[in-house]
Each structure stands twice: as structure tokens, then as C-alpha cells.
User: Fold this.
Amino acid sequence: MKPLQPDHPAPPDAQARRAVRPVVCYPVETLPPAGVAAMRAVRGGARKVSETWVPPRDAATFAVPAGAFFRIVCVEGPQVGDLNLWNAHDLSERFFSGKTRALHGTHVSTGDRLWSSLPHLRPMATIVDDTLDWYGFDAHGASVHDVIGTRCDPYTHRLLSGGEYHHCCHSNLTRALAARTGLPLREAETHVHDVLNVFMCTGFSRETGQYLMKASPVRPGDYLEFFAETDLIGALSACPGGDCGQEHSSDAARCHPLKVEVFVPQAPPEGWSAPLPSPYSGGHGA
Assistant:
């Protein structure tokens, strides 16, 4: 983080340097439209085909076929969830939170897409409904559903506290993926990646730039719903921080389960087809 008391004096033109107009790094106007209206048009007649309960301080996996919907639901009390997504046929293609953040911003909502890792770089899922979209950005600069936090993990916990805690979201996701795939725990861990923090309310300190969290505004009945652009395996951890209003990586917070529902429509959205991997040649100038 930047020092509050810098070691070096400001140059005479410091004010002019700070006043330089910013530009958006990745303008998204050339991206193909997300097609949310067409997706919503087929959602009404969709049939629920599965329901997965995620226990508090634990994780569970679920499968979603391309062209289906999945909904993450708050069911008993305020609870944050950490979401991982993989190509159901190739675990090396997974959710790329950094590029999603670069394209759509620090927090995502309806119409934003969750992009996959390089060299694929294609939409894995599109957000089609968000009951917390009313929250916007608050006076602290915080919002919900962030792609800036990495997931709580036992390594950082050990680094900062000196103790061991085995129900961090990283560990929860690792156990869940190992159980689903039969991979050894250490191998499964290599596939766990930075998350979408579902329902989490976060921002950055204006003074230090540090990552901040506050109690989530989510309440029972709230949900975040996606359209699966490819065949997916998902894993969701019910964070040990509960609503993340105080701390995580401990048993101190009150925690609740989460629910994942999968719905299959009677027909695909008009004009939709599963996105192909990036057509970049792969030459890299060699």
C-alpha cells in the first residue's frame, strides 16, 4: 500500500501530473452483446433439474450444461459464497477473475460475463438476474459480487496469525473438487482459482488502497442467477466469515448454508450458440 508519509517530496508539477485524465483500459463496446433479453425470454419455462445445498463453512460442487441457468440463493441468513467455475471437459479452462475485472469492473451484475482463462478467453457464464443490483456503490465505495478478492486461504491465515485453519474457502473448494473428480487433494488444489465473491460487500480504502469488507446486504430470498455459456462444473464455498462483516478464516462468525439451483429451458435463447475459444493464432511473434 502507498505510504501515508512518503519519503520523497512532491515535484513542482505534482498537481498537473495527478490531474491527467484517466482512460478505460479495455473499452467493451466492441464485445458481442450479452443477449440477456433473449436469455430471460426462455427462463420462464425452464424446468428445475437439480438443487445443491452448500453447508456452512464447507463447499459443494454442481454441474450445469451449456444453455441452462444456475441460481445461487441465500436461504437462511446473510452469507457470502466463493464461486469457482471450470469447463466440465477440461479443468485447465477455468474462470479468470482478473480479466473479468479488467473488462467489467471490480464488481459484477446483470449483463456482465464471467470469462475463462487464457488461451481460451471466452464467456463461461452470463449474469442474467441479480436481486442486489439496487445496492450500487455506497458511501464507502463498496459494492457486492466482487472479482477483486482472491478467496480466504490457510496459507495467508498461517502467515498473518501463525495458526492453522482448515475451513477457509480455498480448502473447502479443494476438498469439494477432489471429492467430485477423484483427484488427489494436492492435485485438486492446483485447479482451485480466484473466485467470484457472491454476495460479498467490498471496496478499497481511499487512504491506503487496502481491500475492505463490510456486512453483506444479502437476505434470505436474494439470489444471483447465471446463464451457462459452456458445459460447467461449479464449486461454491459458504465462507467461514458468514456475512463477512467482521472477520473470516475462523469459527467466530455466524454462518448459513447456500443453495444452488439448476434450470433447463425448453429451447435455447434466440440467436445463441456456445462461444468458441479465442481465435488468436497463438504465434506470439515467434
Q: What stands out?
A: The chain has one domain: 50-257. Residues 50-257 form one domain. The chain has a mean pLDDT of 97. The longest strand covers residues 196-204.
